[in-house]
Amino acid sequence: MRESRSAMFKPRFLLDSIRRRLTAGVTDPFTHADYPLAETLQYRGDPGLCGPDSVTWRVVGDVAAFIGGVRALLVQAVHPEVAAGVSDHSSYREDPLGRLSRTSAYVTATSFGAVPEVEEAIRIVRGAHRPVHGTSTRGRRYTASTPEFAAWVHNALTDSFLAAYRTYGRDTLSKDEADAYVLEQTAVGSLLSADPLPTRAAELSAWIADHPEAAPSPGMSEAVGFLKRPPLSRSQGLGYRILFHAAVATIPVRLRRMLGVRRLPGAIMVGRGAIAILRWALGSSPTWNLALIRVDAPIPAGLFHQPLPAAATIPPGRA
After folding, report:
1. Which parts of 45-184 are beta strand (E)?
2. What are the CA-CA distances from residue 148 to residues 153, 154, 200, 215 (Å)?
3. I need a labelling partner for 45 at 20 to 30 A (CA). Which of 21, 38, 127, 314 fits?
4. What is the pTM of this model?
5. Would strands 133-135 and 141-143 be described as parallel, antiparallel, or unpaired?
């Protein structure tokens, strides 16, 4: 008993305890849906749409992706018809963390999944979008599967993860690497029949920032209100607010004004500090680690701190 008490005050024990709490606090809101790559090791050698040498695995696998996800949901809400589709047909009021988790599962599957897992993720999204149609508050008809609406949702995701990584990521992307990431993501957008799909980073960011259909709407205001104050515990909420303002700081001024959010002084500096702490606590995505195992690629030393996903079927000796 005396030994266990003394162990509690050892630096290593305290650091491990802090790391576990940070990991749980950040990842728990994203665990309210089935893990999409549970059987991924059945598809040995399948690189999926991207593969181990892609920029996508590097960008989506970093903790900066948490900021990218928040930014994407904000940017998506600036399109009135897309916002109406979410407001009129989504379950986020009744199950907000479930919707957040399903969005996370979709990004996980399309980024790191083997081809059959990517196809299943696309099938699920298409099925969910099929009944989503109606009229927005500005009197325009919308259908979720329309190429232009699919493009707004997809391109906002791509642009947001890229913006987050460029601002808060582990390292610096060159212009060619940023362009490669955008081009890789067009493979996902094409499966959703999204159109147009910019193929270069500068073209994509301009398409988002200057989009003529962007405008405020009641659905947008509702989405922003939820994203400002999601149903999180007090400890989770503090960290989330830092990530929220870090995301806002990367949104183009025009869209920020429509959203009614402002860039706080020092938001990027504070966001970088928070991400550095999360990177220490979480390391890179354990799903990235799992995908590397699937294709028998080398595992970079020091990149992964978490165990492989508990929901995944792992052969003995690989956990």
Report:
1. 133-135, 141-143
2. 9, 10, 18, 15
3. 127
4. 0.91
5. antiparallel
Buried b (16+ CB within 10 A) or exposed e, 91-113: ebeeebbebbbbbbbbbbbbbbb
Both tokens assigned to 177: 């690497």
What is the average pLDDT score of the chain? Answer: 90
Question: With contact defined as beta carbons under 8 Å apart, do 88 and 134 qualify?
Answer: yes
Phi, psi (degrees; rounded to nearest 5) at 283: 70, -160
Phi, psi at 313, each rounded to 5°: -85, 110
Q: Phi and psi dihedrals of 196, rounded to 5?
A: -85, 160
* DSSP bridge partners of 142: 134
pLDDT tens digits, one per residue of 110-168: 999 999 999 999 999 999 999 999 999 999 999 999 999 999 999 999 999 999 999 99
Q: What is the Cβ-side half-sphere exposure of residue 197, based on CA atoms within 13 angstroms?
A: 20
Tokens 């610096």 belong to which residue?
Answer: 172
